[in-house]
Every structure is written in structure tokens, then in C-alpha cells.
Q: What sequence folds into this?
């Protein structure tokens, strides 16, 4: 068993946790009313230049319906000097549409500014807004003041890149875990119409030997289903070394599963065993299941037994391991 | 551990580290004082640019053309 590679599955949580931390930040919010052809200055805003994220300044004007604006925006430092100046041309328009006998209203707008930047050092800044134009659709000036909503976050991160990183990391973690946990060697696959399997194979080394067994039982002539609700079958496993000396004798009573479909009934027995074989060696395996299972009336007879033998198996979960006697 | 598994592990950790650090530290973000202007959003015109670490205003105002003719019934 090796569990630490399972921790790789937690790696995608790191970018997602940082994204969550960024979203938990409480933004600085202000509302600024600006009269046409006048300026208004915001309250002081703190802009951080730290390493976790960067400042994001968002402005959104509450434009009247069917109007356009020209908004001047200046970023002022603590001394009142302009450190950035821009103009935003915005509009908001509504109307009706009709097509194919149907009609409705539409509304579109472009009334926001998003400004991502980093100051050279953390400090207090202000925004000075100047409403240079506020016009209706005919180009006539509107006299009402304009309300501008301001939101500042200091720890804005590149969210699409964090999502992309989480997805890529998850895919690579799956590949890495697969390279560790699915790297076994298939040694033998057998399907015999018998109740026992005898084979000799070279097995062992790092990891475990996995013996996967499946068998099917049917009634030879009767179509009757199982009478007993809890049928059982005893599995015997014997392992011998290259000289024929017995190295392991193991018995286990297995539960029997009943199946039926379209009037057919059958039983299956399944088991997976893990063996620890430190050094590769020629081993003889003998697996035996009962030839018949008594169940009142006609007994169930074995149809076939299927065996899959692998070594170099690494399990992420604890498994019961059988060890060979010295 | 086999070399290819080590390589996969290193690549996994590198992808997570590089992507996360880049997204959080944003090394290519515009810094005040840096030459030029920040990347603009829709309808934004910068009235100047940084030269030699100083904000140099641009003289004159651009004329706002008014509505862009959005909405159903017009080309978008």
C-alpha cells in the first residue's frame, strides 16, 4: 500500500482555495453623484501593491434610459497629482423589436469601466470624475446628475487562469496516480470449464501479487432458482515453490451471488486475494472451488472458473495480504 | 521510483505552481509608472501615457460619436 500519491488529488484545490480567498475580500464601495460638466472626487481609496492579487477598480454609471455620456476619470495619488487619466464613452438604450409576429423589449448598455493595475507602492488614492456629456438620443443635454457606483478590490486574481490550472492539475494528477496504481504486470488470464486451476508462473518482486477469481454455477437441467437465501462456497488456495514445497495453504468461505434474467438462473463466486512475494520466483498455484453447491433438489454445478493473475500491484487502500511461509 | 513517474510528478507540481503563482501575482499586469497605458476596456480612451515613469497627458479631447446603433434590427 502506498497512500501518499492520493494527496495528488488535493493539488487542484490549491488554486481553487486561492480563488475563494480572493472572492472573500470585502470590496471598498462608494457612490458618487456627478452633475453635468462638473467634477466630483471620491473618498480616499486604499490601493495595495502586495503580492496576493492586484487592485481592480470598477465603475458603473446609472445612466438614464436612452442616454449617452462622456465621463472623464482621473486617478489621483495622495498628493493630488494625476497618475492616470481616461475617458469613458457610455450609453444605454432600450426599444422594442418585432419579428415573425412576435415582439418584445430590448435593452443594451455600455456603462462600466474595469481598471486592473498595480500601484508602485501601497497608498491612498482618489478618483476624480467629470461628467463631460450627458445626452439623450437626440443629442440634447440632460440636466440630471449621474450616479456612479465605485467598487475597489485589492486582491483580484486571474480567475480563468486559476480554473484552467485546477483542471490541468486534476488531469495530470490522474495521470500521475494512474502511473503509480495502474502499473501492474498481467501474468496470466485463464478460463477453464473445471472447478480447479493448476498453474505455474514466475511471480513476485516489488508490489503485490493479485489473484482475481470468478466462477459461475448453473443447474444442469432444472430452471429452478436458488432455494437458500445464503449460499456459500469454500475457496482453497495452495502455493508451492520451484521444488514443490508447500509455501501457503489458505481456505476461505465465500458468499455466493444469485442472478437471474429471462427465466435463467445462475450463481457467481468472486474473490480477490493479494500475496506478498518478495523476490521473483517460480510458483505453483492451485485454486479449488466446490464442484457443486447443494441447494435442495438438483445441485448447482460449476460452469467455468476464470482467473486473472497480476504482479507489481500497488494499492492505494489497505488490503489483506497473504505471505508465503519460509 | 521509475524516471517517467518522477517526470510526471514534477510536471504536475510545476503546472500547479506556475499557473497558481502567475494567476495570483499577475506579473504582466500594468504598473503605474511603467511605459504605456493599461489594457483598455470597451469605450475607454486614455488621455495620456507613461513616459520615463511620469504620466504625460495628451492634449485635446476625442469626440464621442454618440450611440453605436446597437439593438435588434441593426447589425451587431
A:
Amino acid at each position: 500500500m502506498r497512500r501518499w500519491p492520493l494527496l495528488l488529488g488535493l493539488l487542484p484545490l490549491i488554486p481553487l482555495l486561492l480563488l475563494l480567498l480572493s472572492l472573500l475580500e470585502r470590496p471598498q464601495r462608494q457612490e458618487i453623484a456627478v452633475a453635468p460638466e462638473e467634477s466630483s472626487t471620491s473618498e480616499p481609496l486604499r490601493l495595495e501593491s502586495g503580492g496576493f492579487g492586484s487592485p481592480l477598480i470598477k465603475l458603473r454609471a446609472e445612466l438614464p434610459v436612452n442616454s449617452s455620456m462622456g465621463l472623464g476619470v482621473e486617478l489621483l495619488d495622495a498628493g493630488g497629482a494625476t497618475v492616470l487619466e481616461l475617458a469613458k464613452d457610455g450609453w444605454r438604450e432600450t426599444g422594442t423589436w418585432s419579428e415573425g409576429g412576435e415582439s418584445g423589449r430590448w435593452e443594451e448598455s455600455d456603462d462600466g469601466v474595469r481598471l486592473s493595475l498595480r500601484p508602485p507602492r501601497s497608498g491612498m488614492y482618489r478618483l476624480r470624475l467629470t461628467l463631460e456629456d450627458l445626452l439623450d438620443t437626440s443629442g440634447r443635454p440632460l440636466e440630471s446628475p449621474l450616479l456612479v457606483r465605485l467598487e475597489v478590490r485589492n486582491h483580484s486574481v486571474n480567475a480563468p487562469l486559476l480554473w484552467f490550472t485546477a483542471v490541468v492539475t486534476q488531469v495530470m494528477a490522474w495521470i500521475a496516480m494512474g502511473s503509480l496504481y495502474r502499473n501492474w504486470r498481467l501474468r496470466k488470464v485463464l478460463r477453464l470449464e473445471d472447478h480447479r486451476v493448476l498453474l505455474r508462473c514466475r511471480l513476485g518482486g516489488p508490489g503485490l501479487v493479485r489473484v482475481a477469481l470468478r466462477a459461475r454455477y448453473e443447474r444442469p437441467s432444472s430452471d429452478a432458482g436458488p432455494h437458500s437465501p445464503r449460499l456459500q462456497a469454500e475457496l482453497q488456495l495452495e502455493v508451492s515453490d520451484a521444488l514443490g514445497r508447500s509455501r501457503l495453504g489458505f481456505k476461505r468461505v465465500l458468499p455466493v451471488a444469485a442472478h437471474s434474467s429471462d427465466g435463467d438462473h445462475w450463481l457467481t463466486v468472486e474473490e480477490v486475494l493479494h500475496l506478498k512475494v518478495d523476490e521473483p520466483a517460480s510458483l505453483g498455484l492451485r485454486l479449488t472451488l466446490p464442484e457443486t453447491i447443494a441447494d435442495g433438489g438438483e445441485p448447482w454445478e460449476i460452469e467455468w472458473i476464470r482467473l486473472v493473475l497480476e504482479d507489481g500491484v500497488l494499492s492505494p487502500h489497505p488490503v489483506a495480504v497473504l505471505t508465503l511461509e519460509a | 521510483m521509475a524516471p517517467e513517474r518522477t517526470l510526471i510528478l514534477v510536471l504536475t507540481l510545476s503546472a500547479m505552481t506556475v499557473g497558481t503563482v502567475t494567476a495570483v501575482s499577475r506579473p504582466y499586469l500594468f504598473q503605474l509608472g511603467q511605459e504605456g497605458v493599461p489594457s483598455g476596456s470597451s469605450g475607454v480612451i486614455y488621455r495620456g501615457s507613461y513616459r520615463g515613469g511620469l504620466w504625460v497627458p495628451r492634449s485635446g479631447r476625442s469626440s464621442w460619436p454618440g450611440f453605436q446603433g446597437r439593438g435588434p434590427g441593426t447589425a451587431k
